[in-house]
Amino acid sequence: MSHSQIDDSASSAHVNLGYRFNRFMATEFGIYNLGDFSQTAIVGPAVAKAEYSGWATGIALVPRLPIWIFDLYARGGVQYYDVKSDVVTTLGGRKDDETGIDLYGSLGGAVNIGRHWSVYLEYSIFYASDRVDTRGLGFRYRSPVGMFRIDVAHPFDDPKEDFRIHISFGADL
User: Fold this and answer.
1) CATH at 90
2) How far is CA 136 from CA 86, 99, 105, 109, 112, in A?
3) For 26, which of 64, 78, 157, 173 could close a Cys bridge (C-beta 3.0–4.6 Å)?
4) How many domains does the chain fold into?
């Protein structure tokens, strides 16, 4: 008999700094905290506990195509990542620190509602040790002092994993 339980209650965060050259092209630099999570598995008499944490930083180009009330965009860039894992079983343990450089990207679209509101939908592929595909929905409010964002995301690869909420404020790319 086997049993596995994932504690993914920790949250992740990111900070982006970007520059928009014109209506059609921007660039951004981001730092991403990939979060911490642990997993416990029981297989017969053996028990294993794994803990993971990581971060990444990257730079990307963000081409945009504004069409009437819609904005289509892509994000493509290169990132440096560092993922740490600590696996302990009844038979021993292993620590690993994997670093690397890899590509990341996303495709998305927005519906602009008036001058101040937008609704976004985005699909992203992120590599940090393994490939992670995510989808997200976001709401944007363009205030007089900057863009306010609330995003809800969920990974494709694990339907049991919880949704993540990201709240940010700053310049719109």
Assistant:
1) 2.40.160
2) 29, 26, 13, 11, 17
3) 173
4) 1
